[in-house]
């Protein structure tokens, strides 16, 4: 059994160089390492370590790891290769260790999260996040190789960490009125310029583990581009406080990032684009451009539309020739409709069905339809779309409420953004301190 305490190891290393006590030296120079390393005992292969640990006496079992991995794999569209699953297991174990440290720290400071609080949060997650009852979510989790206990453990860690940050970090973060006013004036001067909604996965790194972190980031990007859920990966891997909301930074101006590397990258991105890993102080970031809009200007995609869907289905076994003839008749009939007023009657006459939606924003629709609908007049329809299995349909525009211009973020919102950034930086240091002082045993 391997047992180590980061604090104890540091004390032993410094014992031979008493003159250096109390001195912080950056990089490998702190240890005066030789260029030629000769191992007395061959290092263990990290790929064959069993994923179980004790964190200050609290047990993390292999089952705990299995259930969390099952939860993540359920969000993947494709099958992960064995080496990626092994890497995922090691990351999950590190996350479980962090969660355990957070829960222990909250309990040590008389802020323990109760079972009742966890159960209440779990029920809210089931209803609001998954549209299920707690019992239905229990069954679903079991079916994917996970468990309710795994979700509850993560909830407990998040509640504990939020509680710790609220008492031990947030009260000591100060943002001056002058800073807010300066940024507010810059934003007002930039009215009409672009505002961004970004997702971020931040991976902490130092000189000792930089190469491994970059490799991990590359694997994450590969999985995201293969269809992985950015929100799921951010919640599991990101070491920023935004991980709890799936990495979503909300609507921001680029200068609010306060990182030239991120600003330069985001400026070149388009919605849906993923970039990284980008090196920034303290580690690496993976960015996802969720959306863009212009500050203080109405976004046409926020318009609320009243739409009528007109569709015709093909019976099973219909021949291609019959389908083509019926489709042509449908398209011809739609082209002669005089707006939404007589669409229902005309549709019924040709065996088509209609569905109304009187309040749907343009941005809720597939991108291929957005630009088409924005250029339609009332009573006009989109080009027909569909196939032999789904039938043919069109969308008819029955009404449109254009969005109002916005004033941009308020002073309070700007202050909250700046405070969040500073809380995030202190939170990272807080968690590093907890890791450093922990006694961790691996089986």
From TrEMBL:
<dbReference type="InterPro" id="IPR027304">
    <property type="entry name" value="Trigger_fact/SurA_dom_sf"/>
</dbReference>
<keyword id="KW-0732">Signal</keyword>
<dbReference type="Pfam" id="PF09312">
    <property type="entry name" value="SurA_N"/>
</dbReference>
<dbReference type="InterPro" id="IPR050280">
    <property type="entry name" value="OMP_Chaperone_SurA"/>
</dbReference>
<feature type="domain" description="PpiC">
    <location>
        <begin position="193"/>
        <end position="291"/>
    </location>
</feature>
<protein>
    <recommendedName>
        <fullName>Parvulin-like PPIase</fullName>
    </recommendedName>
</protein>
<keyword id="KW-0413">Isomerase</keyword>
<keyword id="KW-0697">Rotamase</keyword>
<dbReference type="GO" id="GO:0003755">
    <property type="term" value="F:peptidyl-prolyl cis-trans isomerase activity"/>
</dbReference>
<feature type="signal peptide">
    <location>
        <begin position="1"/>
        <end position="20"/>
    </location>
</feature>
<dbReference type="InterPro" id="IPR000297">
    <property type="entry name" value="PPIase_PpiC"/>
</dbReference>
<keyword id="KW-0143">Chaperone</keyword>
<dbReference type="InterPro" id="IPR015391">
    <property type="entry name" value="SurA_N"/>
</dbReference>
<dbReference type="Pfam" id="PF00639">
    <property type="entry name" value="Rotamase"/>
</dbReference>
<keyword id="KW-0574">Periplasm</keyword>
<dbReference type="InterPro" id="IPR046357">
    <property type="entry name" value="PPIase_dom_sf"/>
</dbReference>
